[in-house]
Fold:
Amino acid sequence: MTLKVYLSGEIHSDWRAQIIEGAKGLDVSFAAPVTDHAASDDCGAVILGVEENRYWHDHKGAMVNAIRTRKGIAEADVVVVRFGDKYKQWNAAFDAGYAAALGKSLIIVQPSEHDHALKEVDAAALAVAREPGQVVDILRYVLKGVLPE
Amino acid sequence: MTLKVYLSGEIHSDWRAQIIEGAKGLDVSFAAPVTDHAASDDCGAVILGVEENRYWHDHKGAMVNAIRTRKGIAEADVVVVRFGDKYKQWNAAFDAGYAAALGKSLIIVQPSEHDHALKEVDAAALAVAREPGQVVDILRYVLKGVLPE
Amino acid sequence: MTLKVYLSGEIHSDWRAQIIEGAKGLDVSFAAPVTDHAASDDCGAVILGVEENRYWHDHKGAMVNAIRTRKGIAEADVVVVRFGDKYKQWNAAFDAGYAAALGKSLIIVQPSEHDHALKEVDAAALAVAREPGQVVDILRYVLKGVLPE
Amino acid sequence: MTLKVYLSGEIHSDWRAQIIEGAKGLDVSFAAPVTDHAASDDCGAVILGVEENRYWHDHKGAMVNAIRTRKGIAEADVVVVRFGDKYKQWNAAFDAGYAAALGKSLIIVQPSEHDHALKEVDAAALAVAREPGQVVDILRYVLKGVLPE
Amino acid sequence: MTLKVYLSGEIHSDWRAQIIEGAKGLDVSFAAPVTDHAASDDCGAVILGVEENRYWHDHKGAMVNAIRTRKGIAEADVVVVRFGDKYKQWNAAFDAGYAAALGKSLIIVQPSEHDHALKEVDAAALAVAREPGQVVDILRYVLKGVLPE
Amino acid sequence: MTLKVYLSGEIHSDWRAQIIEGAKGLDVSFAAPVTDHAASDDCGAVILGVEENRYWHDHKGAMVNAIRTRKGIAEADVVVVRFGDKYKQWNAAFDAGYAAALGKSLIIVQPSEHDHALKEVDAAALAVAREPGQVVDILRYVLKGVLPE
Amino acid sequence: MTLKVYLSGEIHSDWRAQIIEGAKGLDVSFAAPVTDHAASDDCGAVILGVEENRYWHDHKGAMVNAIRTRKGIAEADVVVVRFGDKYKQWNAAFDAGYAAALGKSLIIVQPSEHDHALKEVDAAALAVAREPGQVVDILRYVLKGVLPE
Amino acid sequence: MTLKVYLSGEIHSDWRAQIIEGAKGLDVSFAAPVTDHAASDDCGAVILGVEENRYWHDHKGAMVNAIRTRKGIAEADVVVVRFGDKYKQWNAAFDAGYAAALGKSLIIVQPSEHDHALKEVDAAALAVAREPGQVVDILRYVLKGVLPE
Structure:
């Protein structure tokens, strides 16, 4: 059993690397959005042509990124969404809603100060974690039935 | 043709009332979440029993509210999501993602300062408006083919 | 907004009547299995012909009852499943699983002594109640946004 | 043709091992829930944090286990559900209902004394067996067209 | 609860009329194919233009009839398929397969001499009846919980 | 049985009016795109704000029109697509493809000179007509089983 | 591109072997029902226990066979259904209807004397062939774009 | 992550070869319709028998081609549709509509003079490109997160 995991949300810390490193030896395949912030913002305009209007600049980029995001979520068994302590992070919440509607198993990683604001998101999740290491523990348990010591 | 419209998001201004008032005479049926903030926060604990732990207090409430939200979105033709200028509003973005995955026609209402932060949400929308009146104009046009003068 | 509610599970107390009575005045339409125990057991053999073998007697009846159950669950917004304190009640748990897979909003009504044994069922539910009156409170809140006093 | 088989239900005998052993040489891939009872009960609290309240302890565990269960059922061609002669086994019946709603081919393994209580579950099944060996015979026949001698 | 019933299959006896007459007073809405044999055979050519080639004459007619058949089956809760004692009746078996794949509740009406030949069709059905009156009894029981005296 | 019919395609002749007039007395409900060409082109910019760039002017309009089109097609039993003898009409072919993928019953109305170019579209249709009157004949036949004299 | 092909229908000639032989070298994977007539009839009773009543004997067998048939059709890209010149062959027509409802590409192989009786089945097909060799030609063309010389 | 890409539309230039060449080294698998124009037109008649009537000649061919097209689109993550500057190209627009209804990520390649006529098609796309090279750039970015220099 290969578990397909999509890692959505915050892109300013190394939480994805921690999970991928921690999950070494487990039968997991990971996918994620492009985490190069500048490339992600500009991909539409760079590839498809410059836009005067900033709104359409952003729009073209967001639509190109959606090609990757949609596939990543659609193919995932588990969607992990991490909320950090900065920024609006509406794309993270959007991905969580998208994944929930598709019936994906959702794991949310969030600091406790966001608990109230994320209650609707958490209500659709199968696990709410605080640290990336807990996600690794879940993946190991789900695949091997082994709990952390 | 009755257009079923779900009004998601910000609950601190009268934007829903404006749209409903503006749409009088049109064949639209509206649904929305419970907008009584206190009732919405406490419904789980009041009905199903008090929780010591604030997290589970919130959780029980969010799950009861999900009964209404899911039905509202699932039955809608159009989901309007308004982002205000305060608060995290992750539930709004979650609803937008949920609606997008179900293939609903999304209309986002947002102030221009959120344009960049909402670009992934907007990329899934069929219209991005600034004012509730524009939503009314869209509903009238969609139903009657008539543009505002 | 009419809320369609299917009342599954225990058939030896008047909990359905309590909920239907309590929900008077609310825009709810109720459905339920045939609760006449003898008719429910014998419908297959009485209508389609006697079976020597008890297994097939039961089988024919269960299949005829499935015509009603499937429609009731498939059309419901909310599926309420009550577990009583007697009998195996595997059909109740089966209905809960069936409803969960269809994405229905599940409300489970159970005595606290069953909490551990029902934990997998409850994990798929949006509310776990102890009394029929709490189901009425949920329906009223979901439809009107009003909490019990 | 690889047949994907999920083995749900009773975890207190070696019936899964019997089937897996018996199916050696057949093109079958098996999946199953975590059958370490203690780990299964405590996984939520051990990984995600201790809960005072036993209900939430159980709830967190059941939700983590659902990640594995849902994937196992969703990917299966055949879901085998074994009912033993002890315990409530509502999770087994829940899995059967869940699998039925997804259109999976259901095989139920049950002692004859449960025939009446399981009639609604059996009505959704393609086979009702008494012994694990019969499941092996079915898998061999389905894959190779060969009957037991 | 209105039960939507599609009456497929044999068109040379008055079995549909018997069921509709018998179900008077029950909340059932019936649909059926066009049972005017000549109109059914010729509708394509009469409306859309004559074909030299008999194959295409038949094809055009069958496709026009499919508009009605598909809608009737897609909207039905229950699909009743009657096999008579004459003709190939492949369209009846086709409708049964089509309905089964959509998860409709199937009732087959067949003379006992066809039992062996219809075993795969019957395996997908919730009831196998011999007489139209039994279908009426099922509909009454499903809607009212009342068995025939 | 009400037949829901969406009338897609060419907007420069009165073919929709002919069908609606011809179908008087039949239980049909019709939907269609906005056929006021200027309003249809400009709706996005007029309601949501002027665009310098013609491409985005068109884009905003097309997306607003999609709210109506998607609902019309999604709710239809039958989608009629008329191809005229002028213009590119790619939106007509797009609607046909969209409807085909949703399993709608497609009726194409086309002049014979387009037969070769429309062969892939026609291959997904249940009827290919030359005149609006033939569509009326089909609707009457489907609903009443009566052929034109 | 591997094309998955299910070969349904007539089991009294070697048409499956002809197609499989003819398709050698093409990237096709074939599946089919159990074609050992006796095993297919008796599998239910042999594995799951003898039935006095012939009807239930047949029923148990048909349900076990359905495990294989459903998987074969569900996974197929193309479902080929061959109607021979003998027997009722209602299971063949049932499979065709089942496959059609799932949106599979249907190829029917039939002698011309069945053209009228099969017109509803053919109306759901993408090809109607007379000989197994034509099926091979279609598979080769679909995979390689090459026509027979 | 392998990206499955279907290349639909114009068959008179080497744009497919350009994309496939440009994407060398990327984890992409391509599919496309048969681009041998004569074979594509005649496949039905050559394999399944000559038709006097040109309409049915075309029809048989278009249906055989649909076996390949449907599989290609159904399995694709990304559907690229190129509109050239000649011919009606209704099959291209049909494929775009078909892909859109299935929720595929659409990339349209079109010369600017078609922008107005393609606005409804473009409104369903995630990218509108002018040159095949831009499609390669998108595929590389989606898979590797790297922008062209």
Q: What stands out?
A: Chains G and A do not touch (no CB pair under 8 Å).
